[in-house]
From TrEMBL:
Name by which UniProt lists this protein: Periplasmic sensor diguanylate cyclase/phosphodiesterase
Domain PAC: 421-473
Chain segments annotated as transmembrane: 283-302
Residue ranges constituting the EAL domain according to the UniProt record: 645-904
Organism: Shewanella frigidimarina (strain NCIMB 400)
Gene3D superfamilies given in the database record: 3.30.70.270, EAL domain, PAS domain, Periplasmic binding protein-like II
Length: 912
């Protein structure tokens, strides 16, 4: 009998096998560097002879892959690769004159060109074009200065200042993965590298080839490569028109024929001084595989030694199992009877629960074809249908709402095992009334594990949807003219700007106001003013053509966004509007003569976001009022604004550099919150003020946005919290019952999941108590990331800190979040209070918010109360707290103490 191999022999054989594999791999690599011959068949050669030259679309703004150089020539890595393929295949390529990306794609769709040299292969594009393997490999890398030894891999960027390009997808991903990173936002990758060279950032994240290109072109000699951030994250291929599959095959053969030497030569021709470290990944992977194989072999040897012992133990276990089986057999009948009784009780409880939910919920089951096999009795109360008459395919009861067409796809995904979030459907009841349901479905399985259909819960949310629609209408549209309001216009304007930015198109913004409108109100009454505003909205809308967005911005002001309109077109439209408003209006047989003035700002010349170009259009409107023809563009005001903004930013950095106790510019003021109807003290809101050495007092509305854009908001917010906590400790020691003091949180702070812990740490370090504080966050900031925001607010509530939702009514909150929101108070924005007495729309919003908040168990604070009539209205409609100049302007800490602590102490003395 032959002798069995020992364990050492097996290990030795395994190592020999691995070494052979390594030699084979090295041979493979050597073979890959060889030049591969190109073999075109007769059909391919014939096709080429009939279709030459090949028309090529090339992106002219994609350095160093493809771009237009100083001599107006198309050059780059991909272009060199294309020319080399042309030499090998004998193909004449003609580069199309159009070099802007949207027009290139359009030309390929319309078959005016044959290929696009570089395009990212996506599932959507695969339905339109044919693709080769990648021609361009793009990797994100981390670039820093030569003398920086703190960053050796991607994890080392934590707690560093990193230059990133605004609106790039990887920028958002970086912030989520490394929340401790301080972003230094720039407009392009060249500025990112300049920021590193100027020591404004510790490192920059850019594309590898782009970094090489910019280093060579702009002599960034003291920069180096640190590490890869992401490898090959956006490779680009050659895209071929759909009806030329043979051309796609030819181009692929051309790409496959390129040797490693040829590819390296092209890459080196576009390289720079940044040296890549040697990538030992293949060696690491080989070592890992070898280690795993040796480990498995060792385990196998040990297992063989244990087999005999396991066999003996198995025999013992078998005997024990037989004994247990006999005992189980004896008790089986008893267990079956007990289980049957438990199932009967559970079923009765389940049916009792189902039948008790008659007003809002319907329980049902249907098979894989959609036939409803079971429905709870509540279907009669909600839809008027009988249980026996409901046996029907569910889709026969649906309305023609487009979202109902998605239901079959949802159900198929659920049947396939995917867990979906609740989705909405619309169903007619027996009276033809439409009901909206929120549906949650899960698959049902038989004893063999096969899916036999779905069971679900349908929640009737019709009333909730109606309330949401009403609130949406109130918060997004102007009740008088039907135009969108200021809040919604800013949202749409930002969306238009993003579209124009992507398509490299201009955008014009017109700010229009009516002249002599106050005279109309004073002489003819508000009914005439309302009529004129309605007619003005109609004139504006009927005068404009093409794509536009019109908003009543407040009072007699209107805003008009004109995408893809340049300066000359905007000027012509503005002039036409001025002429249109020179025509008189008729009201109750009275002839009314008005006019208008128009200020114009342009994107991107006058600003990169909605707020910037709105401010510039407003400045231009001021200039237009001085001109006889009534139209003006933004000009020198923009330069003045930019200069002031820079000075404010620099001054804010300097002010924050001082210790908290020595700040001579920044200080806090306190505005009292007044309880209604008693008008007793309900606490304070702490507000930040800045006494600039040159500009004097600067409004927070001006310097807070600058702090948010520059990243200073985090440091500024912590300064404010420390200052307030120090003051509260002092007040507490003086015996002042200041209730709670509110501190505002920035929307950017909610991006940190650790925000609650950080705030509590600051409070504890100062020696304050959480029960003294309340944090305010705007409704818009809350709804940007609602789930994370709710988690943060819940931690604050658990620590006995109150939470208020500021500026409520200016944003659009989902009631699904609002009803579960861990907030103790809603603050109605002062924009709804200032015109409260004369605006039925504002009155409706205020009453709706108060009623809704009270129904959810939350208190309501009204901001900006300045008149007795406003206060009377709020008391009449049971508002809880008021705040505004009617009671007191914000005051310093000493004045607040002397005014309210003395009052409280006097009241206490009188009680004694």
């Amino acid at each position: 009998m032959p002798k069995k191999p020992t364990a050492y022999t097996n290990v030795f054989l395994c190592i020999l096998l691995l070494l052979s594999f390594a030699n084979f791999t090295r041979a493979d690599v050597v073979e890959m560097t060889a030049v591969r011959p190109i073999t075109l068949n007769e059909h391919e050669q014939q096709w080429l002879s009939e279709h030459q030259p090949i028309r090529v679309g090339v992106d002219g703004y994609f350095p160093p892959y493809t771009y237009i150089n100083e001599n107006d020539q198309i050059v780059g890595m991909a272009v060199d690769t294309l020319l080399l393929i042309g030499q090998k295949l004998g193909i004449e390529f003609v580069i199309n004159d159009e070099h802007r990306w949207p027009d290139i794609v359009k030309n390929l769709q319309q078959k005016e060109i044959d290929i696009v040299l570089t395009m990212v292969n996506t599932p959507e594009r695969e339905n339109q074009f044919l693709f080769t393997s990648p021609i361009v490999y793009k990797s994100l890398v981390i670039i820093g200065k030569n003398n920086n030894h703190q960053i050796n891999n991607r994890s080392h960027i934590a707690n560093k200042t990193i230059a990133i390009v605004k609106d790039y997808q990887y920028s958002d991903k970086l912030i989520k993965e490394f929340p401790s990173v301080t972003p230094f936002v720039v407009d392009n990758m060249r500025e990112a590298m300049e920021a590193v060279q100027a020591n404004q950032a510790d490192a920059a994240i850019t594309f590898l080839a782009a970094a090489n290109y910019y280093q060579l072109k702009y002599s960034f000699s003291d920069l180096k490569f640190f590490a890869f951030y992401e490898k090959n994250n956006a490779n680009e291929s050659i895209a071929v028109r759909q009806d030329f599959p043979i051309l796609a095959s030819i181009m692929q053969k051309g790409l496959s024929s390129l040797s490693s030497t040829e590819k390296i030569a092209i890459n080196e021709a576009w390289g720079a001084n940044i040296t890549l470290p040697k990538d030992n990944q293949d060696l690491i992977e080989f070592a890992a595989v070898a280690g795993v194989l040796i480990l498995l072999l060792s385990v196998w040897i040990l297992q063989a030694r244990r087999n005999n012992q396991a066999l003996t133990i198995a025999n013992i276990n078998t005997a024990n199992a037989n004994m247990a089986l006999n005992e189980l057999k004896n008790n089986l009948e008893k267990n079956v009877l007990e289980r049957t009784l438990q199932l009967t009780i559970s079923e009765n409880r389940y049916r009792g629960l189902v039948e008790s939910l008659e007003d809002e919920y319907i329980f049902y089951q249907h098979d894989t074809d959609g036939f409803v096999q079971y429905v709870s009795p509540s279907v009669t109360h909600i839809l008027g249908l009988t249980i026996t008459g409901f046996g029907e395919y569910y889709y026969k009861l649906l309305t023609d709402n487009p979202k109902n067409q998605l239901i079959s796809g949802y159900i198929q995904r659920i049947i396939n095992g995917e867990k979906l979030a609740p989705f909405e459907i619309e169903i007619f009841d027996t009276n033809g009334v439409i009901h909206t349901f929120e549906v949650l479905e899960r698959p049902m399985y038989d004893d063999e594990g096969e899916c036999i259909g779905c069971e679900g819960i349908a929640h009737d949310v019709t009333s909730r949807k109606q309330q949401q629609d009403m609130l949406y209408q109130l918060s997004h549209y102007d009740d008088l003219t039907g135009l969108i309001n200021r809040y919604f216009f800013k949202i749409l304007l930002d969306e238009n700007i993003q579209i124009c930015l992507q398509n490299q198109q201009p955008l014009a913004l017109l700010f229009l106001d009516l002249t002599r409108f106050k005279i109309i109100n004073d002489n003819f009454g508000h009914s005439a003013g309302d009529y004129i505003l309605q007619q003005a909205a109609t004139r504006i809308s009927t005068t404009l053509n093409g794509t536009f967005t019109v908003s009543r911005f407040g009072g007699d002001k209107f805003c008009i966004a004109l995408p893809n309109k340049a300066a000359d077109e905007a000027n012509a439209i503005a002039t036409e509007l001025v002429e249109v408003f020179q025509q008189h209006f008729e009201f109750l047989e009275q002839t009314i003569i008005l006019g208008c003035r128009v200020g114009i700002s342009l994107f991107p010349e006058d600003g990169k976001d909605a707020e910037a170009i709105l401010n510039q259009a407003d400045s231009a409107l001021y200039e237009a009022k001085k001109r006889p023809f009534g139209v003006a563009f933004c000009n020198k005001q923009q330069a003045i604004h930019n200069k002031r903004r820079l000075i404010i930013e620099q001054g804010l950095r300097k002010a924050l550099a001082e210790p908290v106790i020595e700040h001579y510019q920044l200080f806090a003021v306190y505005q009292p919150l007044i309880l209604l109807p008693s008008q007793g003290l309900g606490g304070f809101e702490a507000l930040m003020r800045w006494d600039h050495p040159d500009f004097g007092l600067i409004s927070p509305a001006e310097f807070i946005p600058i702090a948010e854009n520059t990243g200073l908001i985090f440091e500024l917010s912590r300064w404010m919290l420390k200052t307030v906590c120090q003051q509260l400790v002092k007040w507490h020691e003086q015996g002042f019952d200041f209730k709670r003091v509110s501190v505002n949180l920035s929307a950017l702070e909610l991006m940190s999941i650790n925000l609650a812990d950080d705030l509590l740490a600051v409070i504890t370090d100062i020696g304050a108590e959480p029960k003294w504080l309340k944090f305010e966050i705007t409704e818009t900031a809350l709804m940007a990331i609602p789930e994370q925001s709710i988690d943060i607010l819940q931690k604050l509530i658990q620590a006995d800190i109150h939470v208020a939702i500021d500026d409520f009514g200016t944003g659009y909150s989902s009631l699904a979040y609002l009803k579960s929101l861990p907030a103790t108070m809603l603050k109605i924005d002062q924009s709804f209070i200032c015109n409260l007495i004369h605006s039925a729309e504002d009155q409706a919003v205020v009453k709706a918010v108060i009623n809704m908040a009270h129904s959810l168990g939350k208190c309501v604070t009204a901001e900006g109360v300045e008149l007795q009539d406003q206060l009377d209205f709020l008391i009449e409609h049971h508002c809880d707290v008021a705040q505004g100049y009617y009671f007191s302007k914000p005051m310093n800490a000493d004045d607040a103490y002397h005014k309210y602590a003395v009052i409280i102490n006097s009241m206490d003395d009188g009680a004694h």
